[in-house]
Amino acid sequence: MNARSLERLTMTSRIKQALEHNEFALHLQPIFRAEGGDLAGAEALIRWQDPQLGMISPSQFIPLAEELGLITHIDRWVINRSCALLAQWQQDKRWQGRLAINISAAHFCQDGLVKALREAIDRYQIDASQLELEITESSFIQSFSRAKQVLLELKLLGVKIALDDFGTGYSALSYLTKLPIDKLKIDSSFVAKVPDEYGNSEIVSAIVAMAKNLNLTLVAEGVEKPCQHQFLQRLHCDYLQGFLLGKPCSSEEFAKRYSLPQPRTPQIYEC
Ligand code: C2E
Ligand code: MG
Ligand code: MG
């Protein structure tokens, strides 16, 4: 128990230090329209560049940050950085897509998310309709009515809401008709098994049909193979994201790749 307490204490101070020393970076992965293949947006994915350990993946530190109660600081860093970047792109006028950011369920369930977003939107003077929040079903397991209220307030700010990792949670599907959600992101675990694995393609087809009937936009995550790409195009899935089409890269590299202005480091971080 002592060893574990010490490890938690060390990690708490290391994550705080990483925020103070600016060791986090925003990577971006492109999202494409399935029909025509145009660039339709990007997802912001955080990276931790530890001076000793090198690049640390979010799957390694996000669950820990949630457990240690530090996720709000990290999410707010991402919100500020993403809004600053979007402001730059909107001023430049070449960017027509959306920028999506991941909001942890632990953060979503706390007070203050709507206020933090409103402040960032005002501070950077962005058109919020190009900002998308990716949340997971676990965000509304604790209290459905509170989640609905938060989502309605977020929608009033003008942001779009996407449901990430769709198909992996345990909630009742009826929430799709009760919550103001714009988009579903089919989890990569389903995409990985199309078109061959028995039953899986049928599930993906059913998700696409359901999304269309409910007027929800659909993104397939984790597209790695041409056969998956073709299968999803045939189903008329709206957007595709995955290593086959574009891997996540630094925001500088992304700007170079898609002829956007090089990101400036914003002055204000309110974590
Ligand atoms: P996610 O939001 O579902 O993000 C998609 C993950 O799939 C990313 O991993 C991305 O690099 C990876 N990916 C994309 N295309 C492919 C593909 O074709 N094949 C494979 N194998 N993987 C693909 P990443 O960046 O390691 O992020 C993992 C998770 O960590 C994210 O899953 C998200 O839940 C969380 N995360 C990442 N950035 C943030 C952040 O800024 N804030 C919060 N709260 N969570 C974040
Ligand atoms: Mg995501
Ligand atoms: Mg996902």
Summarize the entry for a quick read:
The protein is of the alpha/beta class. The chain is built from eleven helices and ten strands.
Note down, in words, how this protein is organized.
The protein is α/β, with parallel strands linked by helices. It has a single domain (2-257), classed as EAL domain (TIM Barrel), CATH 3.20.20. 44% of the residues lie in helices and 20% in strands. It is built from 11 helices and 10 strands. It has an 8-stranded mixed barrel. The radius of gyration is 19 Å and the shape is globular. The model has no long low-confidence stretch (mean pLDDT 93). It binds ligand C2E and magnesium ion (2 copies). Ligand C2E is lined by residues 29, 44-46, 57-59, 62, 75, 78, 102, 104, 134, 164-165, 188, 221-224, 241-243, 248.
